[in-house]
Amino acid sequence: MTKKIYLAGPDVFLPDALEVGRRKAELCADHGLQGLFPLDNAVALAAHDASLQIFQGNEAMMNDADAIIANLTPFRGPSADAGTVYELGYMAGRGKLVLGYSNDPATYVERVARFETIETRDGLLIGADGLAVEDFGLADNLMLIHCLDLHGTPLVTPHAAPADLWHDLASFTACVRIAAQRLGPKQAR
Amino acid sequence: MTKKIYLAGPDVFLPDALEVGRRKAELCADHGLQGLFPLDNAVALAAHDASLQIFQGNEAMMNDADAIIANLTPFRGPSADAGTVYELGYMAGRGKLVLGYSNDPATYVERVARFETIETRDGLLIGADGLAVEDFGLADNLMLIHCLDLHGTPLVTPHAAPADLWHDLASFTACVRIAAQRLGPKQAR
């Protein structure tokens, strides 16, 4: 049976989200996998319980999927999109294969420094909020990064950020290739 | 047996993190619960694999816990701390009771507007990055909020943000009270 991949990411917020989802699903199909894109769930946005319907649709898709490929490119701040991170955790908790990529290869410290001044106090990096800045040379919070290391495959990043951070699918495609190998290479072509 | 609560939050990055963890654990004990605070895991920060040790310690704690209380107060941007959100998802995936609070009661749209100008295009709110701003009147991404609604109890928030966003434990205490009721009221005192 064709293995299913839940396609998580802030891609759903793009103006051309449906087209991006279609391209991602095509790339999955090229590797013998079925991509499940959140916007495939039909929800009337004007419905009074639209957000709840979206949650329930996404959760059902995740329960149905064998793996997740999470777009962990930083979103409105130094870290990945909260909804995507939630879904990464949920899939790890369910014991599914977890993969992720970030089109921005910068470390967390470099990312925080784009938004605020970081001070050094007693050998610790401290952000503008007075809270410590995680400094392990990782791209994001250690929980996300090591989740991928231990329950899937290390975060996939390009050597340099691509010109189009939200449409370049090279690192996504690398994740698809790994997922195909891990979930049954016989289905890859 | 005493039920265990995993105490998730960016509290670990506070200068007085150990003291905050101690207060949170005390509040749990007052309600017949055992609080598990991430910094209770002894890790030598200078170790070459310190971040991996922290991940493994936190994951073991979560597997051991009956519930999570997540501090979802926005952290370095409009959304909650990525590590905390990951842990919320992980615990939901494991079928554990999930509770969360935010000391900032603002909606996601209000939070985004603090950092950037939001435009309206074709009836949709669009952020400075050109991506849509979720507009369901919720405090954060719908995945987090409805996870709490369906797998625990709705997000706990104060009517107004407290003077000390990172040390006020009123909403945390409300979560502890709910957890005690849900996990076995006989142990509450």
UniProtKB/TrEMBL annotation, chains A, B:
Name the GO terms of the biological process aspect. Answer: deoxyribonucleoside monophosphate catabolic process
Keywords for this entry? Transferase
Q: Write the protein's name.
A: Nucleoside 2-deoxyribosyltransferase
Residue runs in coiled coils: none
Please name the Gene3D superfamilies in this protein's record.
Answer: 3.40.50.450
Keyword Lyase on this protein?
no
Q: Which GO terms describe its molecular function?
A: 5-hydroxymethyl-dUMP N-hydrolase activity; transferase activity
- Specify the domain of life of the species encoding this protein: Bacteria
Q: Name one Pfam family in it.
A: Nuc_deoxyrib_tr
